[in-house]
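Notes taken during the Thursday session

The instructor put the following on the board and asked us to keep it in front of us for the whole hour. The protein is Monooxygenase. We were told not to look anything up and to reason only from what is written here. First, the residues (231 in total):
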Amino acid sequence: MTEPYVTLHLWGVPTHRAPSAAARMALDRRPLRQADGLRFAKLLGTGSGRTFTTRDADFRHWALLAVWDDERDALRFERESPLHRRWGRLRDEQLRVALRPLASRGRWSRREPFGDPEPRRHDGPVAALTRARIRPTRAVAFWRAVPPVSAQLHRSPGLRLAVGIGEAPVGLQGTFSLWESAQTLVAFAHRSPEHLDAVRRTAETGWYAEELFARFAVLSVDGAYRGRGFG
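Then, after some discussion, the predicted structure tokens were revealed:
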């Protein structure tokens, strides 16, 4: 199978259109699955990711993560899909990130959406995606552990963007982050005491029923998020 092409769309909507955007999260699942060349996709809510509780939720920003056979399929979807056109009418801003997987470990909905990429060197900007299904019996302990790690993440040199993502407000959550380089991402992941402590506690306490970590080469970043331009 060819190397996948991954896109993340972050759509910002005016406050008065937030209920319509929330409805599209449910209504668009079936038509999305019919897109040509689509391997895997998730419509996602977003939030600050600072606590991974309901108070983080951002009802003005929504996301689509999609894994395609190749770039042509992604561009055709963006050009021709009624689903994409509907979001074009709802939104007042959009951030589009195009990615190639560099590494992926774990599962999402019992699948390996980004395959098993061969290790390679990448000298440009990178992105990281974490996603987990939290065990209900471990949720309180998990929520207590999140704020120190999140605070350190947002202070980390080289971080360009971090946003919480999830299929549900509670229990199915993750983070998408953009970094200036692989070195800055590695510095946070392997040298931050708060993050290292969370990794250790994850192994000890079994917070997650399912988890995934993936790292990507950033091919392009276009548009804006929360009024901040990228590109």
